[in-house]
Amino acid sequence: MSTPYEAHALYELNVWQQEMQRSPSLMNALAQKAQVKLNSFIPEKVHQAITTAIKHMIRGVLFGAGYVAPKPMAQTDLLVREAQVRERVKYYRHAAAAEGGVTGAGGILLGLVDFPLLLGLKLKLLYDVAAIYGYDVKDYRERVYVLHIFELAFSSQQHRRKVYKHIQDWETQVQQLPEDINQFNWRSLQQEYRDYIDLAKMAQMIPLLGAPVGFVVNYRLMGKLADTAINAYRMRWKEEGLLR
């Protein structure tokens, strides 16, 4: 029998699952057009620098470079775990906001530095959240799941639906993962992520506006990632019979 907290978590999970599966709206289409237009005004060298930074950070997490895997939390109930998740989220949101404010005040050059720094904070948050829910990110398959959470949070609605369908039955999908990590296709992940955040983050490079924009945008992006991770792991728990 579920506790009141678990019942509420299941309700939030159901709402989130419906959101993940909804069709792209007119606003989504307009935002995508605006993204394409904005990208056309940005120098190609800037685009290449951003793409390269994202590429290397994503490869880094796939191969474990520079990341210390937290120890999975011992068996305990959902309420205790999610209380700890929210404490970690609070820390990372404030760290990301502070970093965005500082780099945003520095214009284009420091604005470029913000991309890999923020990406690193996001990936570390996901590692911590995975461990709190009891999953060992030393296992590369768990790292693949982490990257799929990343895709869910920072993709167009059309791509998000594809990713959701892919991880909906993770126990089946995980059996089909290649043994060789080099076979993992991460190109679409970095492209979707870049396109998703460009519209907001490019404004961070505008003089005078950069600092407040960087502070607010980073805070919100980290919050969105946290909400996505919480529900993605609730879905895993439900699939495994740990949440009913």
UniProtKB/TrEMBL annotation:
PANTHER family from the UniProt entry: PROTEIN ECSC
The protein's name: EcsC family protein
